[in-house]
Amino acid sequence: MIKVVVVEDEYFVRKGIIMTTPWAKFGCEVIGEAEDGVNGEMLIEKLHPDLVLADIRMPGIDGLDMIRHLKEKKVADDIEFIIISGYDEFNYAQRALKLGVKDYILKPVDITELNNTLDNISGVINSRKLKKKLEEKIDKLVDSNLANFKEYISSSGTDLKENYIERIIQYIKENYMYDINIQDAAEKLFISPSYICKLIKSKTSYTFMEYLTSFRIKKAMELLKDPEAKIYAVANSVGYKDSRYFSQVFKKHVGMTPQEYRQK
Length: 264
Fold this sequence. Notes:
alpha/beta; 5 strands; 57% helix
């Protein structure tokens, strides 16, 4: 639900807005109200609403100064504001626009106008919330999957095993874009597949294919940052000839399809 705070010094106007507006229709709920700018500012800091309806002329500080204070404190970065005023003055409207106020409604409040405004602004808020939710989901999924994938870095090139593992990792880096497997690596490096499997697992905690797949998906994520890159082209660039299979593997590791990841 979209959380709403109403700040209005006229009691009956404030209650009228709260009681007669079909908030649920727009996915909203009023979580607080205040009778002046000072209390409104404190309430907004405490409750962190998504939307604030505020009068301009109120005791203490006016609605625009209240908004300015909140902006200066970085409290209102994700809050949308609707100004309600009994004064049709250009100066007020100009100040409101500079503060990023979404709409300016004159008293007496026209219910149809308010409803239309809420319909529009609720769409803006819900879109922002959805985007934020997706970004958090992406961060969480990446953190739980590929963020834990650490490319192997050699600690010493003198040890025989170290030398072998370096050759295996280098083979993956140079050939991940092709259709390779552990047998191909074994033939190229003159090492048995079983020894490659044992060695890479002991040094990286991944099997050969797990390391190869993680490396490929990490590269794919980098390529998908380009909005012009085609999914099938990205798939082919990281060693997957079948773009559908690539999408399945990508979703398993990242938690969403390549297209969803790019549109985050």
